[in-house]
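Late entry, written up from scratch paper. The run itself happened at the end of the previous shift, but nothing got recorded in the book at the time, so transcribing now.
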Amino acid sequence: MASLDLTSKLPGTKTSIFSKMSKMAQEHDALNLSQGFPNFETDSKLQELVTKAMENGHNQYPPDAGVVELREMISEKFRSLYGYTYNPNNEVTVTSGATEALFCTISAFVKKGDEVIVLKPAYDSYEPTIQLAGGKPIQIQLKGQDYKVDWQEVKSAITSRTRMIIINTPHNPTGTVLSKEDMLQLQQILEGTNIILLSDEVYQHLIFDQLEHNSAARFPKLAERAIICGSFGKTFHNTGWKTGYCVAPEFLMQEIRKIHELTVFSVNHPMQRAYAEYLKEPEHYLELPEFYQKKRDYFLNLIQGSRFTYIPSKGTYFQLLNFSGITSENDVNFAERLVREYKLAAIPVSVFNINQQDNSQLRFCFAKTDETLEKAAEILCNL
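Output as recorded:
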């Protein structure tokens, strides 16, 4: 084999914690509450719609921006939920999962020397993509056990080189949500700047306790500078279908589409046809808060007798559990021991924090069958 002198564009980047913990779960035959995917089937009606689309011949390349009917339904969803209308022709793009939307957005706008503010803990694709684009992530740690944003710290971090700020609500991995007051403070900070807002809203329909999802689309001064990313896989229990989307004003979207076309060109055709038809019944996503809140509450009720402490998740399908009453181990070691010795996989939260700040917390995914949650809770209660 030839010996080539190569320099990595992402030196120091390791296998993601999701891949690591899922691999350990498989090796140790453990329950996997680490990676964020449901272990129950998607709606049979949606599967039938995919089959119907295939039978009707929708098996070749769709339009690169996405099937028109699906873009129209995405636009209608934002209008009805958040009061903001995106033109389906030039302000909506269907992507290969939300991660592709994030990648295309960062790649389109971040140049060498640009700074991007990232609120930590954060989804682990943000910073490598910023670095690939030649930018510099500016990390700001969320505060306390309830992970609040210090907006004064955000404002102080803005410089003449700040190109973008990334927010995520509902938030992975903490399950927190940004309030109306948070969004208004952000809107005030960004007003009059040249900063783009990238709003990761993949869990927008998974929000609990009658709270409201404060999409960037609700706030006109934010919407005019925001790219919002969404995920059908997260919404409709089929993450393996890898279908997402982004919405943005036309002057931003035209740049994102350039990267999208060069990256994947287009997204699976029959799935798009199925989603377009499925979205005609809004109840399919309006019922999700109640569905997942029941999952959350069932899981938390099952572990009431355990030595874990927690603040109930406000959104997503993740729950943080504090284990400081059980062991003084760091969270990575405890998570690995939990898999090896107790056959249960979770995600240590420190890997997403600045300097691996360890709050003795593990993240558990409760998008599982009741049987799986019962087995997991039995393990947790015996620790």
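Residues 68-82 form the longest helix (15 residues).
(Scratch paper discarded after transcription.)
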